[in-house]
């Protein structure tokens, strides 16, 4: 019988080495992923080679992607795959968050090999190759754009915002604090209609358009695009929680190295608090929609993460506010 294959996902090299050494002594074939994004690539490569994994062992709190969100996506894609979650944090609230996602096991570090083997002994194994769920179908993409506006008549700010929101093609309209005063998102069913909607906004009295970004499908490898479809399907409820005019939201406008789009995009979209990430300018710009930004720790965490990422050129923040009519 072929040895069972396991993927260990942990940023701590000592943890990976310890688990690898222990599992190999008991006949396991072990591969390691240094972060969540690498695990996505390794799983798909293994599946393509017909040598999928029969178990994933992952740290709950990764830095490149939110470990809980990664677990949620893997649970949707591989519903029968045993997912063993590790953590060194004794935080009961975090523990409940992960347990609610129903991993096969949730174990505390430092981990005794006997404990891990006892948990593995409870599982029946198939492989990621055998039981991968097909990626959900996605609706055809509508022509969309973000428009960033400056108010010229502050006394009519509420009236102008209501006028803009009522226009054909405007799906979201927010007053914001930052470099811009108003952010609009337009979505229509043809390029001609989008051009007409953009022109109508430009002709609105009391505002000037500072920038217009036509949204594009981000250029991702088929493997990563497939994974993102699974992630977006399981996170649809969270993303749908966004409503026009809600104070607990913010936009981040990010200039990036377009050659690092895939890694930056995937890392950002799988971050707690992010409920939307759209590309424009050939992948050189991202517009990120934040949820819960009124809580300083949520937005601060994302901004700190962006500050450490390679390929980030510039970050501008626009916090959503309410304005009276």
Brief sketch in words of this structure:
Helices cover 36% and strands 27% of the residues.
Characterization of this structure:
With 325 residues, the protein is α/β, with parallel strands linked by helices. It has 12 helices and 13 strands. Residues 243-247 have low confidence and may be disordered. It has helices at 13-25, 36-48, 67-77, 92-99, 113-120, 128-131, 157-165, 191-202, 222-234, 236-240, 261-269, 296-308; strands at residues 5-9, 29-33, 55-59, 83-87, 105-108, 144-151, 170-178, 182-187, 207-216, 249-256, 274-280, 285-291, 312-321. The strands form 2 sheets. Strands 6-8-7-13-10-12-11-9 form an 8-stranded antiparallel beta barrel, surrounded by 4 helices. A 5-stranded parallel beta sheet has the order 2-1-3-4-5, with helices on both faces.
SSE order and pairing:
Blueprint: E1 5-9, H1 13-25, E2 29-33, H2 36-48, E3 55-59, H3 67-77, E4 83-87, H4 92-99, E5 105-108, H5 113-120, H6 128-131, E6 144-151, H7 157-165, E7 170-178, E8 182-187, H8 191-202, E9 207-216, H9 222-234, H10 236-240, E10 249-256, H11 261-269, E11 274-280, E12 285-291, H12 296-308, E13 312-321
Helix pairs in contact: 3-9
State the CATH architecture of the largest domain.
3-Layer(aba) Sandwich
Rg (CA only): 22 Å
CATH class call of the largest domain: Alpha Beta
Helical residues, percent = 25-40%
Identify low-pLDDT runs. Answer: 243-247
What is the N-to-C succession of helices and strands? EHEHEHEHEHHEHEEHEHHEHEEHE
Would you report the number of β strands?
Answer: 13
CATH topology annotation of the largest domain: Rossmann fold
Shape: elongated
Mean pLDDT across residues: 86
């Amino acid at each position: 019988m072929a040895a069972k294959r396991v993927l260990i996902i942990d940023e701590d090299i000592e943890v990976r080495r310890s688990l690898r050494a222990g599992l190999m002594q008991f006949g396991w074939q072990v591969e390691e992923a240094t972060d969540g994004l690498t695990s996505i690539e390794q799983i798909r490569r293994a599946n393509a080679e017909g040598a999928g994994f029969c178990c994933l062992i992952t740290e709950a709190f990764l830095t490149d992607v939110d470990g809980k969100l990664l677990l949620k996506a893997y649970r949707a894609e591989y519903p029968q795959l045993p997912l063993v979650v590790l953590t060194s944090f004794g935080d009961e609230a975090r523990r409940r968050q992960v347990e609610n996602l129903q991993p096969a096991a949730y174990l505390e570090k430092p981990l005794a090999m006997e404990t891990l083997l006892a948990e593995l002994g409870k599982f029946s194994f198939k492989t990621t190759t055998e039981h991968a769920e097909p990626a959900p179908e996605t609706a055809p993409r509508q022509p969309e754009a973000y428009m960033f506006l400056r108010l010229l008549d502050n006394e009519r700010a509420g009236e102008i915002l209501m006028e803009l929101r009522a226009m054909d093609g405007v799906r979201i309209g927010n007053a914001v604090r930052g470099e811009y005063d108003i952010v609009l998102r337009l979505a229509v069913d043809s390029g001609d209609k989008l051009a007409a909607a953009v022109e109508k906004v430009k002709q609105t009295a009391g505002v000037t358009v500072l920038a217009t970004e036509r949204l594009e499908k981000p250029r991702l490898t088929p493997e990563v695009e497939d994974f993102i479809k699974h992630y977006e399907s399981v996170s649809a409820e969270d993303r749908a929680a966004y409503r026009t005019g809600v104070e607990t939201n913010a936009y981040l406008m990010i200039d990036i190295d377009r050659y690092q789009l895939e890694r930056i995009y995937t890392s950002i979209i799988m971050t707690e608090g992010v409920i939307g990430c759209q590309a424009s300018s050939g992948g050189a710009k991202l517009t990120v929609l934040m949820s819960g930004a009124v809580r300083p720790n949520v937005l601060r965490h994302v901004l700190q993460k962006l500050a450490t990422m390679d390929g980030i050129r510039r970050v501008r923040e626009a916090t959503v506010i309410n304005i009276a009519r």
